[in-house]
UniProtKB/TrEMBL annotation:
The lineage of its organism: Bacteria, Bacillati, Actinomycetota, Actinomycetes, Kitasatosporales. It comes from the Bacteria. Keywords: Oxidoreductase. Its EC number is 1.1.1.-. This is SDR family NAD(P)-dependent oxidoreductase. GO terms for molecular function: oxidoreductase activity.
């Protein structure tokens, strides 16, 4: 498949995990990809891997909570590859702790990186996406739809992303499509702290009885970003191996 031939894509949080898989997938399907993150070395490595494979890619640093960084990202992307048709807003942080114990600064920082970034992404690249009849895909989470003890700000941010995606789809509908993916348990670096037993329990909680791979989310992102999803907008697509539909899985 070469669904993104001649198009430019930007992926945030692309130095590892789902973002890296998305960058590799979009590049493999013909996109010129800006790999963006704050982890410079790992981000450079992802861009280098794409180029080594014959693709077009560059690493550009952007802290997604910073409006100035978004502007610089747009300018650098234009200079290298031209206007953006595909934007995957994926970077995140998460902090655990009960709501009454979380410092306000932690709440604000996590909302800025996880939720406000989607608003900044849209503001920054709307002209491009309109001109290209493009598509934005956000990475939310299944935790947008149910409570998980210890993750109040993560759940609020991810739920907010789903609501914002619906809103943006309606707002800019005729020209730009907005969708999100809601991953379940996907084996990335965020699982490094979870031991074998914890992983097994999470795997068993899915209908498919296994953890997902980042590439399995990337393929959903590529679908939503592509013309194959030309009549899909405002959708929050669950990619969780059947975790949320399995009784007692939560
Ligand atoms: P990851 O830690 O591998 O990747 C996250 C990336 O975001 C990192 O490269 C990190 O450097 C980058 N990042 C952090 N703060 C940033 C900032 N301020 N600006 C720019 N980049 C920043 O994690 P992942 O598992 O690949 O997660 C990707 C997305 O998938 C996230 O939105 C996460 O909420 C979502 N998700 C993951 C899972 C899972 O089980 N892995 C489940 C549900 C949702």
């Amino acid at each position: 498949m070469n669904r993104f031939s001649g198009q430019t894509a930007v992926v945030t949080g692309a130095a590892s995990g789902i973002g890296a898989a998305s960058a590799l997938r979009l590049a493999a399907e013909g996109a010129s990809v800006v790999v963006s993150d704050i982890a410079d070395e790992a981000g450079e490595a992802v861009a280098a891997a794409i180029r080594a494979d014959g693709g077009r890619a560059a690493y550009v640093r952007c802290d997604v909570s910073s409006e100035e960084d978004w502007t610089a990202l747009r300018d650098e992307t234009h200079a290298r590859f031209g206007p953006v048709a595909v934007l995957h807003s994926n970077a995140f942080i998460h902090t655990s702790g009960a709501a009454h114990e979380l410092p306000v600064a932690v709440w604000d920082r996590e909302m800025a990186v996880n939720l406000r970034a989607l608003y900044l992404a849209t503001r920054t690249f709307l002209d491009d996406l309109r001109a290209e009849r493009g598509s934005l895909v956000a990475t939310s989470s299944v935790h947008a739809d149910f409570g998980l003890p210890g993750y109040p700000v993560y759940a609020a941010a991810k739920g907010g992303m789903c609501a914002l995606v619906r809103q943006l789809a309606v707002e800019y509908g005729p020209e730009v499509r907005f969708n999100s993916v809601l991953p379940g348990p996907i084996l990335t670096e965020v699982w490094n702290d979870v031991d074998e037993e914890g992983r097994r329990l999470s795997a068993d909680a899915t209908a498919l009885a296994r953890l997902g791979r980042p590439e399995e989310v990337a393929s959903a992102v590529a679908f939503l970003a592509s013309a194959d999803a030309a009549y899909i907008t405002g959708t929050n697509l669950v990619v969780d191996g059947g975790w949320t539909v399995k009784k007692d899985s939560k």
